[in-house]
Fold this sequence. Notes:
The protein is of the alpha+beta class. It has helices at 12-16, 20-30, 44-50, 60-67, 82-90, 103-107, 122-133; strands spanning 3-10, 33-40, 72-80, 116-118.
Amino acid sequence: MGIEKTYIMLKPDCVKRGLMGEVISRIERKGYKIVDAKMMNLDEAILKEHYAHLADKPFFSEIVAFMTSGPVLGMIVEGENAIKGMRIIMGATKFEEATAGTIRGDFAHSTRENLIHGSDSPENAEIEIKRFFS
Ligand code: CDP
Ligand code: MG
């Protein structure tokens, strides 16, 4: 709790569909600040770290193919309780469970291509900000 920084990443589908502005606007309207941002092309090595919890899944290679299919926008987002707060405005991982009014609920029609990543805990936020911004 308190003022937190979280790692947010707009995935290749979000960039390709021209939804970066929409998503950034929602983050700003919520009252969070984007304190750093950069376009990046990810490779398999960084995805093996970032998605280590999924590396043994049969669909991991498809996640890598998707996440390397185009540029992503990495951001550091700051605000009161921003780690949990961003997860709430993102919506559930599975698109069919993501509530209308959330980013995934309004725009995702696939669980893989679900527009946005957000850190899920203070520990992971710190690790992910280091991973992508140092
Ligand atoms: O992104 P989030 O933290 O909500 O979910 P995750 O369980 O950490 O999974 C990371 C990402 O892997 C998801 O956002 C999806 O893009 C992908 N994924 C997938 O393609 N199929 C699944 N069954 C689960 C996750
Ligand atoms: Mg996750």
